[in-house]
Write a structure and sequence with these properties.
about 300 residues; seven-stranded antiparallel sheet; 7 strands; about 25% helix; globular; disordered N terminus
Length: about 300
C-alpha cells in the first residue's frame, strides 16, 4: 500500500486593507524574494597553528629556564632575608664551633616579685634587682663540667671563697673590708670548665643600691682602674685593658672594666671583667692553659650583662 498525502490547502493572499482615515497610503514595497533557509552548520572548531617540533622544544626550554630563574630569585631573596634576621648561631654552617662561641642554653630571666619594677625602670630609684640573684647568674654552656663548689650553701657563696680568687693576702683583707663598708648583702656564683680546658667563674655581688656600687668602683681605693685592676687575680701577673673587647658586646646601662693578661704570661692566660649593673657588681674570670680565647670570653661577658640589664 502507498500512503496518501494530505491535500495542501493554499493560503489565500492577504486582502488589501485601505489606510485608516487621515493616514497617507502605504508606499509600494517591492516583493521580497524567496530566500532558501540557512542549513544548521556547527561552529567551526579552533584549529591550532602548527608549531614546528624544534620551536616547541625551544619554547619549553625557555619556559623552564624562566621558571627556574624566578624560583631561584625568590629563594635567594628569602634566604638573604632569613640570614640577616637570624643570629649567627642559627645559620647552618655558621655554628658556634666556627668562630669559637659556646652553645649556651636559651636564656630566660626569672620573674619579678609582684609589684616590683625592673632593675632600670624609672620607678626603681635604687636600680635594685628584685628578682632572685641566684637565677641571674649565667648558666653553664652545653657540654661543660660545672664547678658545684661555687654554688655555695643554698646558692649563696661565702665572701672568703670569692676573695680566694685574688693572689695576695693583703689584697684579700683590704677588699673584704671594702665589701663590708659598702654593705655587701650576698654573693651568687657559678663556674664551669669546657672541653678545651677553659675555666670560667662568675660572681654576682649584690649591695643595697647602685650608688654603693658606683662608690666602690669610683673611690680612691677603687677595685678597678683604667690601666689595670686594683687587685691581682691568681695567675695573672700583669693585666692590661682589653682593647679588643667589642662595643657590640656592651650594654649602655652597664659599666664595663675589661682586662686581659699581657704577654709573656705563665702557664695560663687570665681574662677578667667587672660589670657595674645597678645594685650588683658582676665579676667574670676566665683562664686557660696557653691562651684564653677572646670570643667565648666576650660572649660570656655579653650574655651575663643581658641577664642583669
Amino acid at each position: 500500500m502507498t500512503e496518501q498525502q494530505a491535500p495542501v490547502t493554499p493560503v489565500p493572499p492577504a486582502p488589501d486593507v485601505p489606510p485608516a482615515p487621515g493616514m497617507p497610503p502605504a508606499p509600494d514595497v517591492p516583493p521580497v524574494p524567496d530566500v532558501p533557509p540557512v542549513p544548521d552548520v556547527p561552529p567551526a572548531a579552533v584549529v591550532p597553528v602548527p608549531v614546528p617540533r624544534r620551536n616547541r622544544r625551544v619554547l619549553r626550554a625557555v619556559l623552564r629556564w624562566t621558571a627556574a630563574v624566578v624560583v631561584f630569585a625568590a629563594a635567594g631573596a628569602a634566604t638573604a632575608y632569613g640570614i640577616t634576621g637570624m643570629d649567627r648561631t642559627d645559620v647552618p654552617g655558621l655554628a658556634t664551633s666556627s668562630d669559637g662561641r659556646w652553645d649556651y642554653p636559651r636564656l630566660v630571666k626569672p620573674p619579678l616579685p609582684s609589684g616590683s619594677p625592673a632593675p632600670f625602670a624609672a620607678s626603681n630609684k635604687t636600680w635594685a634587682h628584685h628578682a632572685d640573684l641566684r637565677a641571674l647568674v649565667l648558666p653553664a654552656p652545653v657540654g661543660a663540667r660545672e664547678d658545684k663548689a661555687l654554688r655555695g650553701k643554698d646558692g649563696w657563696l661565702e665572701t672568703k671563697d670569692f676573695l680566694a680568687e685574688y693572689a695576695r693576702q693583703k689584697d684579700r683583707k683590704k677588699f673584704a673590708q671594702q665589701l663590708t663598708d659598702h654593705g655587701l648583702r650576698h654573693i651568687a656564683a657559678r663556674g664551669w670548665t669546657t672541653r678545651d680546658g677553659t675555666h670560667t667563674r662568675i660572681y654576682l655581688l649584690q649591695f643595697n643600691s647602685a650608688a654603693l656600687v658606683d662608690h666602690l668602683l669610683g673611690t680612691d681605693t677603687r677595685i678597678t682602674a683604667y690601666d689595670s685592676p686594683a687587685y691581682q687575680v691568681r695567675g695573672a701577673a700583669d693585666s692590661v685593658p682589653d682593647e679588643d673587647f667589642p662595643d657590640r658586646a656592651r650594654i649602655d646601662i652597664i659599666t664595663y672594666s675589661v682586662y686581659a693578661e699581657a704577654k709573656p704570661y705563665g702557664a695560663e692566660q687570665v681574662r677578667q671583667a667587672y660589670l657595674s649593673a645597678g645594685d650588683t657588681l658582676a665579676v667574670v674570670l676566665q683562664t686557660r692553659k696557653g691562651t684564653a680565647p677572646a670570643v667565648p670570653f666576650q660572649q660570656t661577658v655579653s650574655l651575663q650583662g643581658e641577664l642583669l640589664a
